[in-house]
Amino acid sequence: MAAVFTGEDLVQAAMNLSPDVIICDVALSELSGIEAKHRLKESGRNIPFVFVCADEDIKKHLIGGLESFVHRQDVATQLNLAVRSAAAGKAYFSRRYSDFRRGS
Predict the structure, then answer these.
(1) Is 55 exposed, middle or buried (0-12, 13-18, 19+ CB in 10 A)?
(2) Domain that holds residue 47
(3) Is the residue at 2 inside a domain?
(4) In whole angstroms, what is the distance from residue 52 CA to residue 4 CA?
(5) Has residue 55 been placed in a domain?
(6) What is the pTM of this model?
(7) What angle do CA 86, 92, 93 make, to 5 degrees?
(8) Residue 69 to residue 101: CA distance in whole angstroms
């Protein structure tokens, strides 16, 4: 496990460590979590991400593929579920994002 504080650091750490799942805020500095995922995917690393987000509407953050989103207020109760889903290749949306959980 490694802790990073910027999107650039996230990309470098992921390239060096090849984690099974990455948990990050969508609003990292220098490079957003979404942009970090893009960069890793472009480099051939398709690592599942669980994004932590404070936004009530996540449509602007959806990038295609399997993303998992946990609202910041749901982290304590739903982060574990999101990580397990992401590791199994499934998207996860915390209860605040119920529209996405139903597939709409």
Answers:
(1) middle
(2) 7-101
(3) no
(4) 14
(5) yes
(6) 0.86
(7) 150
(8) 10
- For residue 39, give the 3-state DSSP assignment: helix
Interval 37-81: pLDDT, tens: 999 999 999 999 999 998 877 877 776 666 899 999 999 999 999
* pLDDT band at residue 87 under the 50/70/90 scheme: very high
Q: How many residues does the chain have?
A: 104
Average pLDDT score over residue span 83-96: 92
Chain centre distance of CA 36: 10
Would you state the pLDDT for residue 59? 78
Q: Is residue 25 part of a domain?
A: yes
The CATH code of the domain that includes 64 is 3.40.50.2300
Q: How many Cα atoms occupy the beta-carbon half-sphere of 57 within 13 Å? A: 2
